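3.2 Worked example (two chains)
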Amino acid sequence: VMSAAQDVTDQTFDSVVLKSSVPVLVDFWAPWCGPCKAMGPSVDKLATELGASIKVVKINTDESQDVAANLSITSIPTFMVFKGGKMVARQMGAMPYDKLKALVAAHL
C-alpha cells in the first residue's frame, strides 16, 4: 500500500520540511512502535484530506536519529507541525483522528 505521507530522512528534512512553503505535519515513528503503526492510517487519511494545503511526512527515528535528537524526541509517536521553518505545534502519543486534524488545522 502506497502511503499518502512522504518519507523524509536526516538528509532531506531541511529541504522538505523547513523550507516548505506550506505547513508540514511530521510524524516521528519507528517500525517496532505499535502506537505508531496504529496512527498510520490516520496520518495517511490526513495527507489525503488536507493534501492540497499541507504536506504530511513521516520520519523513521531508527534510521534518522539526528533530526530526532535535535528536536528532543523522547517518545514516539510524536507529531510536530512546522510552518515557515519553525515548529508551531507538538503532540506526543497516539490520538484520535479528529485531534490530529485539529493539531494541524489550527495552523492552516
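3.2.1 Second chain
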Amino acid sequence: MNLPIHVISLPGSNERQAFIAGQLEGQGLPFSWLDGVNGRALDAAEKALLYSEEKAVRQGGRALSPGEVGCALSHLKAYRTFLD
C-alpha cells in the first residue's frame, strides 16, 4: 500500500524545498507540498482566533513560541487535508 506523501513547508523556503524534492525524487517517491503556517507572520487578531496562550500555559506549563504556534497550525492543516 502506497500512502501519499505530503511535505509541509513554508512558502518561499526554496533551498529546503529543493533539497527535500531531490531526496524524494531520487527515491522515486511522488509527493505534494502543503503550505505551512508561518507563526511569526500571524497578526494579533489571527493568533487570538487560533491559539490560546492561557490554555497553553494551563495544559503545557508555558506559552508557545510563534514558531511552535505555526508548526502546530501547519500540522492541524495537514490533518484536515488527510481527512478530506
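3.3 Remarks
The helical segments are 14-26, 44-50, 53-60, 66-83.
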